[in-house]
Automatic annotation (TrEMBL):
Keywords: Iron, Metal-binding, Oxidoreductase, Peroxidase. Its cofactor is heme b. This is Dyp-type peroxidase. InterPro entries: Dimeric_a/b-barrel (IPR011008), Dyp_perox_C (IPR048328), Dyp_perox_N (IPR048327), Dyp_peroxidase (IPR006314).
């Protein structure tokens, strides 16, 4: 692995609070966004320095549809739209999103302040698709009551999983983020026994210990997300999921975010979850959890943000066609329909 530019705070350890902000750029808003991009690191410093022990971090990502509107020159090799998945029972929708701001800190006031400063700069030039405020829930449990994040790769393995290196030299030091907002059916979940819940996830609820292979169902979440290459190497992603909710309106959820040096690993996990694998039709977790958003972003390294390529000449710039792989050729169940991405944007 050669030297590469310094990544944004992709590998920031799990924090106690997070804001996930996804927006689209209005036609004519390109200049304003381009003006903000080189200021992002100083905005982060300005807010974060007021409380260094709060560990404020910011990751900014760019979606496929906006790339050619903001930057002249080359595109990241694997930047494409989120691929909608339609299984026999469950659906992973592709939803709108040009810019992702993943803001993390140990205190919500820091996240909130940075989000507010960013939105102030973008005022009138973007539309907010989704804003989720996530919180730490006891010992890093999700709202299903399970510890979430245990098998994240540590240290060097995390860098290898998340950061682009030699495969795309012009975009090395970057990463790909896939986000999905999941809403839980807690009534149905709480109707299960603790033992049955453990079989859905593939780990013991209280102790967090993984179930032995001979007791772990093939449709459990852990079994379907353990992706091993033919050479025996496990394919990993870095997840920074956060619980969110509104007790008053009965909304309980998990905001999924997975970083990887290639979107194909996360996409393979999603296919396993929504389309199944072998005789398994879908991940059991989906019987209690509905995906309501789905977006894919390239996350450039810090140098790129500080000194981005110039805006394209919009007279000559043409919107790039979304690169969509038709996975139907790979599947054996014939149930996958790739969404009409132009239709959902
Ligand atoms: C409702 C949304 C989700 C919830 C509540 C959830 C929760 C969990 C929990 C509790 C674990 C076990 C502990 C751990 O290692 O973190 C886990 C593992 C994992 N999840 Fe999820 N998850 C969700 C969505 C996803 C999605 C969408 C993906 C991938 C596209 C994913 C990928 C993984 C992976 C790779 C593991 C580790 C598997 C292993 O090596 O043991 N999860 N998740």
């Amino acid at each position: 692995m050669g030297a590469y530019p310094e990544p944004q705070g992709v590998l920031t350890p799990l924090t106690d609070a997070a804001v996930f902000l996804v927006v689209t750029v209005r036609p004519g808003g390109e200049q304003t966004v381009a003006g903000l991009i080189p200021d992002l690191t100083s905005l982060l410093r300005a807010v974060g320095f007021r409380l260094p022990e709060g560990h404020l971090s910011l990751v900014t990502g760019f979606g496929s549809a906006v790339w050619g509107r903001l930057f002249s020159g080359a595109r990241p090799a694997e930047l494409h739209e989120f691929v909608e998945l339609r299984g026999t029972r469950h659906h992973a929708p592709a939803t709108l999103g040009d810019l992702l701001f993943h803001i993390r800190a140990d205190r919500m006031d820091l996240c909130f302040e940075l989000a507010a400063q960013i939105m102030d700069r973008l005022d009138g030039m973007v539309d907010v698709c989704d804003e989720v405020h996530g919180f730490r829930y006891f010992d890093r449990r999700d709202l299903f009551g399970f510890v979430d994040g245990t098998e994240n790769p540590p240290g060097r393995a995390a860098i290898e999983a998340a950061i682009i290196t030699d495969a795309d030299p012009a975009f090395a030091g970057g990463s790909y983020a896939i986000v999905q907002k999941y809403v839980h059916d807690l009534d149905a979940w709480n109707a299960l026994t603790t033992e049955a819940q453990s079989l859905v996830i593939g780990r013991h609820k209280l102790s967090n210990v993984e179930l032995p292979d001979d007791r772990k169902p093939a449709d459990s979440h852990v079994a379907l997300n353990t992706v091993v290459r033919p050479d025996g190497m496990q394919q990993q992603i870095v997840r920074d999921n956060m619980p969110f909710g509104k007790a008053g309106s009965g909304e309980f959820g998990t905001y999924f975010i997975g970083y990887c040096h290639t979107p194909s690993t996360t996409e393979e996990m999603l296919r396993n979850m929504f389309l199944g694998q072998g005789a398994v039709r879908h991940d059991r977790i989906l019987d209690f959890s509905t995906a309501v958003t789905g977006c894919l972003f390239y996350v450039p390294p810090i140098d790129f943000l500080d000194d981005p390529p110039p805006l394209p000449d919009m007279e000559t710039a043409t919107a790039p066609e979304p690169q969509v792989t038709d996975h139907r050729a790979e599947g054996d169940n014939g149930t996958l329909r790739i969404g009409d991405l132009k239709g959902v944007r």
